[in-house]
Amino acid sequence: MENAAVEADRGPIYDRIDAIYPTLPPRAQRVADTVLDHLGDIATYSVAELAQLSGTSAATVSRLFSSLGFQDFAEVKNHVRALRGGGVPLGAAPSPVDESERFRVELDNIRRVSEQLHGELLERMSEALCTAGTVLMVGMRSSYPVAMRLRESLAQVRPRVVLAPQPGQSLGEEFAHVGEGDVVMVVGFRRRVSAFGDIMRLLPTTGATIILIADSTARRYAQYADMWVDCPIDGVGAFDSYAAAMSAATQITDAALEYLGSKGKRSVMRIAQSFEALGEIDDGDLR
Questions:
Q1: CA separation (Å) from 215 to 15, 22, 90, 212?
Q2: What are phi and psi of 244, to 5 degrees?
């Protein structure tokens, strides 16, 4: 078991448990099962409470954490908080999510991002997005739907709005064709691709104006952007909440439409006429 413990002293706690689980005695396995069942809200328990839940002793709980490479329970809590902060979906189990609390947190997130977008920052973004030659929207993994929403809305008020990467597409050719007078808007929420830092370091060399929309874990990349929006995505459940991110997308594109005035409205009407001519939008007819 000692060799297994050394091997387990790497990576997230659930991997460490998997690495040594077959070697654990039955009582320690019960503790491991309890820890995994309550991983999302482990910080709300004490060692004694975990022992009671697993039907073991505090000493057994402490020995398990030691075999997993943790000095004490405080280190376990810090480790799990770091995992959650990195976007690993560890929900509060086994209690169901309090829906009123969920909505309170999401409304607070929307309020926080709206406060940032109120005033000068939103005006600068609107001007940049509406006067650029080309606007390139970049989003990967969970950031892709937000980037797609931004592209879908902005493309109705101005031409040459591009979404990248498309399926099967790389980014190099897109970056090679943007430059001074263009805008690259990067959406980069946590659990980003490993090349995200390289992308952010490369973009300023293109000469384009860079806008970053991301959560606070991307703060270190803000130095490469001309403008950035710190968009909170923390929720009360296992998964991140993108309510504020979608709200930000709506606020940004609404501001762009307002900036363009009658020109933007004419663009919206022309697209609506194209939809109608092609029969692309459901009109509610049940025929």
A1: 26, 39, 18, 10
A2: -70, -35
Q: Are 180 and 133 within 8 A, CB to CB?
A: no
- The C-alpha R_g of the chain, in whole angstroms, comes to 24
Among 223, 226, 221, which Cα is nearest to 207's? Answer: 226
Residues 6+ apart with CB under 8 A from 75: 65
- The partner residues of 230 in beta bridges, in order of sequence, read 214
Cα 41 off chain centre by: 21
90's tokens: 């560890």
* pTM, two decimal places: 0.65
Instruction: Measure the CA–CA gap between 134 and 164, rounded to whole angstroms.
Output: 13
Each residue of 204-228: pLDDT tens digit? 999 999 999 998 778 888 889 999 9
Q: Are 178 and 161 in contact (CB under 8 A)?
A: no
